[in-house]
Write a structure and sequence with these properties.
128 residues; alpha+beta; 3-stranded antiparallel beta sheet; 37% helix; Alpha-Beta Plaits; single chain
Length: 128
């Protein structure tokens, strides 16, 4: 399983529109969203709003067996929902998802990674 975290500033004055976008994903657009994510190979997606003195930011986490393939498909898809999603990204964040293709890199094999910290809560482990 591989993942990707996108931290995207929300354009000035667009926080409520971003909230409505999330409501649409879980409401009127839900079935098209589910169809899109299944077709793309997304296994999990989370969207969070972070607001501070510098403005508002959307933090989106995607998980998939092959996240590079998912992003490439998301960027190039001609399905109406995927086009709508990209248009919303442009409106809400001022970014074109196609610009992220240049930053995609294949995941490094585990032997080339150095894990420096990990923590997992295990209920009843006596730590609390």
């Amino acid at each position: 399983m591989s993942g990707l975290v996108l931290t995207l500033p929300i354009a000035s004055g667009k926080v409520e529109a971003w909230r409505r976008f999330c409501q649409e994903l879980s409401g009127s657009q839900l079935q098209m969203y589910i169809n899109s994510r299944r077709r793309l190979g997304v296994t999990s997606e989370r969207m969070a709003l972070v607001e501070n003195g510098f403005g508002a930011t959307a933090v989106t986490t995607l998980e998939a067996a092959d996240i590079s393939q998912v992003v490439n498909r998301m960027i190039s898809s001609d399905y109406p929902f995927d086009r709508w999603y990209r248009e919303r990204m442009l409106d809400l964040h001022g970014i074109q998802l196609a610009g992220y293709q240049d930053f995609l890199q294949p995941a490094l094999p585990a032997q080339n990674q150095e894990l420096l910290f990990e923590w997992t809560f295990i209920s009843g482990d006596g730590g609390f």
